Amino acid sequence: MVARIVLADDHHILLEGLAQLLRPHYELVATVSDGRALVAEVVAHKPEVALLDLAMPLMDGMEALRHIRELSPYTKAVVLTQQRGRTYVQAAFRAGAQAYVLKEAAAAELLRALTEVLNGRTYITPKAAADEIPFSKPARKQPQEWMNSDLTPRQREVLQLVAEGKAAKEIAYLLNISVRTVEFHKASIMGELGLRSTAALTRYALENGIIGD
Prior knowledge:
Blueprint (H helix, E strand, L loop, with lengths): L3 E5 L3 H11 L4 E6 L2 H11 L3 E4 L8 H11 L4 E6 L4 H10 L3 E4 L4 H12 L4 E2 L28 H11 L4 H8 L3 H15 L4 H10 L6
Helix pairs in contact: 2-3, 6-8, 6-9, 7-8
C-alpha cells in the first residue's frame, strides 16, 4: 500500500520540485502553502505523513505540529527546513516531529527520512546540531516552552499574524474570535515579552523563527 503524504511549504518553486520528487514513490494527496491549510488537509485526509517547513504563514510549523499531534495522532510528521540550530530541532521533536531534514540535504536523504519514519523509526539529518535529543518519549511541553517563551498557543498564533502584518479584523476572522480579544492577546503578548511596539513584536517573531525573513 502506497503511503499518502500532505506537503506544505510556502516557496512555490520548492513545493513543485518536492511534489515531483515524491509522486513516483508516494500518493501526494495535497500540497499547501501555509500552516492552517496543512492542518486542515491532515484532518481531512488523515495521511500517513505530513511533510512541512517550520517557517510558514498564518500558522508556523511548530504550531502545526502540535495541532497534527492532537488531531491526527497517527500521522507522522517530517520537518524539512533551513533551521539547523539545536533549539529548533528539540522544539520540533517535542512538538511531534519524527524526522528533521535540512533543505540543503540531497533528495536521497529526504526519501531515506520518509522511509525511516514510515517504518516506525526517527531520523535526523547529520548536519543538524541535535545530539542527546530524547526521541523515545512523547512531548509533554508545548513548543513555545522550548523557544524561550511562556506564550500560550493562542498567543503564538496572534503573534505570528500580527508579525505578518495582518490587521486586527483579519486576525479575528482567521481565528474566529472578536477584535477585542485580538487586541487583548496582543497587549498580553507585549506585556509578557516586555515589548512596546508592533515592530518589536515582528523582530521577536523573526528572531525566534515564528515567521521567516
